[in-house]
Amino acid sequence: MSSTTWQPRTGGDPEQACPIAPVVDLVFSRWTTPILWALHEYGRQRFVELERRLVTITPKVLTQRLRQLERDGLVLRTYHAEVPPRVEYEITELGHSLAPIFAHLAQWSAGNLDRVEQAREDYDARQRPPRGR
Amino acid sequence: MSSTTWQPRTGGDPEQACPIAPVVDLVFSRWTTPILWALHEYGRQRFVELERRLVTITPKVLTQRLRQLERDGLVLRTYHAEVPPRVEYEITELGHSLAPIFAHLAQWSAGNLDRVEQAREDYDARQRPPRGR
DNA sequence: CCGTATCCTTGATGATACTG
DNA sequence: CAGTATCATCAAGGATACGG
């Protein structure tokens, strides 16, 4: 039944004393954030809808991530035995409890992302020009 | 001068309409969270100290991540031209502004990580035993 | 429609050795 | 001490084709 034995990134190391490592693995692994966002933003939707929103994702990876999120209790999958089959995904209450954190991140972005951009320019300007003075 | 042309994970896709994708790349890339945490928790410290705290990290990767964080303005690097050389890293004010988000995540962890664990057990229990009833 | 099965590529990481 | 250079590895991700 598929060899999807997903191992968390921190698997090798018991604890590097970073208390939020587990939740970071959970929520901020590749694709999971956009998926959760799409489900939160546009509500319950079918596989294809998600696929179309996350433009560059492949069905294989989308399935992998959705299964993982379902297993972690953040997403609920509902299978309707019709022809053609219909499957709907929605965010669970547990998944929804992440919303404030997402909002917090969005807020930080709005206020500080330009400072990051500025820092990058400064850094590059300092390193780049072999032309000193 | 090294070919460290680091590309963000969302590089290929202009925007998949997930507004927090940039900040996720910035803060939750591999190793960045533990590094920021260590700097925030134990204050300014030298390269080796960080290396020892992040048990499994290699000097190469640690350097890469520190450079990235420095470029993004989240970490400040100070070089002391002594013998032996001494380099100290500390978190910047911009980096420090992430602290509430980290706290928020730690709080969510404390309150919900066991629910995730429970969800996993339930899911596995439902899938695993081909022996129904 | 909703996936799964294969094959393959690639980029991040680890290991190791070596400088200023 | 604080890295850098080089090589080897390896698993996540992408491409493609097919099935219920």
TrEMBL record, chains A, B:
Domain HTH hxlR-type stretches: 18-117
UniProt-listed InterPro entries: HTH_HxlR (IPR002577), WH-like_DNA-bd_sf (IPR036388), WH_DNA-bd_sf (IPR036390)
Alphabetical list of SUPFAM superfamilies matching this protein: Winged helix' DNA-binding domain
Transcription regulation among keywords: yes
Gene3D superfamilies: Winged helix-like DNA-binding domain superfamily/Winged helix DNA-binding domain
Keywords annotated in UniProt: DNA-binding, Transcription, Transcription regulation
GO molecular function: DNA binding
Record-linked Pfam families: HxlR
Name of the protein: Transcriptional regulator, HxlR family
Species of origin: Micromonospora chaiyaphumensis
